[in-house]
Amino acid sequence: MSKTSLPPVVVAGGAGYIGSHMVRMLLESGFHPVVVDNLATGHAEAVGQATFRQGDIGDPSFMAPLLREFQPACVMHFAAASLVGESMTAPAKYWRNNLVQTLALLDAMRECGVGQFIFSSTAAVYGNPVEVPITEQHPRNPINPYGHSKLAVETALQDYDRAYGLRSIALRYFNAAGAHPDGSIGERHEPETHLIPLVLQVASGRRREIARFGSNFPTPDGSCIRDYVHVQDLCTAHLLALKKLGEGAASTAYNLGNGSGHSVNEVIAAARRVTGHPIPVRDDPPREGDPPVLVADARRARAELGWAPQYADIETIIAHAWQWERSSLARAA
Ligand SMILES: NC(=O)c1ccc[n+]([C@@H]2O[C@H](COP(=O)([O-])OP(=O)(O)OC[C@H]3O[C@@H](n4cnc5c(N)ncnc54)[C@H](O)[C@@H]3O)[C@@H](O)[C@H]2O)c1
Question: Each residue of 216-238: pLDDT tens digit?
Fold first, then answer.
């Protein structure tokens, strides 16, 4: 299959963590990814060989000509602000970037006749779980502006389908983790707030210790449990969603997680095994609004998309992230 035998796909936020892995997978699968990113948190070098246009998804004078030029089959939308804590203190940024700019993007798509959309949603739309594992039918009651802004987009997507025929699949990720198995791209957030890269920064000497926020949760070892899903597996789900939309599927939403959680203590223990570093821990008070357990029921994605995560094992996820941490330190040296 030649590299450009399949149609263009616009990847909004393709210079970011998950988006850059998607761009690579699209290229390898024969699609023509067109990256749109304002580099607010992304990195131009992560885009690799794909077509890259720097700009804001919310700027119609940038987006409409681009959509007319490439006539993509679909827009994959990773572009967002996604720091839960920051969303509590700066909600205006979250409503504007995640909702207002997304509505502008959807309107540019309507204007240019682009009718398929894959949306990076989040487990944060569920808020505090009333039961786990969490299915797609679980009540959606976000507890922070980040989750609210994502739920608002999901709601708009239902209306845009009903009224304008814009079909979409919202993929509700649990905790994205890991890096490309070849070590060339990975997670690079500033500030970093995610557990696995933080733990590995201790192992590589960039941090002294890892903070454990709470050790008296009602879980077997007292630390929070989360569902870590490999970034490559998330991207595979997007490819399957793209295929499904191409076959005429109705708009819907899927959870993406492995369905088995790992506690903070288990992640630290696995990182000690992978890195051989003792990884000292500091106990801090629990953070407000941190549920004890967040684990996905992702059986619908498996059954309807045919999604079969390849890298569910936590040590593999950490080993790939560790390879990325070491290679990025070597490049910076
Ligand atoms: N990382 C996770 O664990 C996780 C979990 C659930 C959902 N998500 C969602 O997945 C998506 C990607 O997350 P990530 O971790 O890769 O984030 P990221 O910050 O690494 O990537 C986001 C990218 O979007 C770009 N961007 C942001 N606003 C933009 C705008 N208005 N116009 C153009 N570009 C813009 C940024 O520059 C960045 O390159 C986000 O929508 C996030 O909410 C992530």
Answer: 999 999 999 999 999 999 999 99
How far is Cα 228 from Cα 215, in angstroms, rounded to an integer? 19
Residues 6+ apart with CB under 8 A from 308: 302
The predicted pLDDT at position 4 comes to: 53
Residues in CB range of 120: below 8 A, 6 or more apart: 13, 18, 76, 77, 78, 80, 171, 173
Tokens of 257: 């997680």
Write the DSSP symbol of residue 223. S
Q: For residue 51, list its beta bridge partners.
A: 34
pLDDT at 314 over 60: yes
Peptide bond into 129 cis (omega under 30): no
- pLDDT, one tens digit per residue, over 233-265 is 999 999 999 999 999 999 999 999 999 999 999
By most ligand atoms within 8 Å of CB, the mutation choice from 18, 45, 233 for ligand 1 is 18
Cα separations in angstroms, 59 against 67, 70, 229, 231: 12, 17, 32, 28
Nearest CA among 145, 184, 176, 148 for reference residue 78? 176
Residue-wise pLDDT tens digits, 274-298: 999 999 999 999 988 889 999 999 9
Q: Are 185 and 24 in contact (CB under 8 A)?
A: yes
The predicted structure's pLDDT at residue 289: 80
Residue ranges lining ligand 1, Cβ < 6 Å:
13, 15-19, 36-42, 56-58, 78-80, 82, 97, 101, 120, 122, 173, 175-176, 189
Mean pLDDT of 158-187: 97
Residue 24 CB neighbours (<10 A): 23
- Enumerate domains of the chain plus CATH numbers: 8-177+229-256 (3.40.50.720), 195-226+259-332 (3.90.25.10)
Mutate to test the pocket of ligand 1, among 52, 57, 82, 192 (most ligand atoms within 8 A of CB): 82
Q: Which residue's alpha carbon is nearest to atom 7 within ligand 1?
A: 122
Which pLDDT band holds residue 3 (cuts at 50, 70, 90)? very low
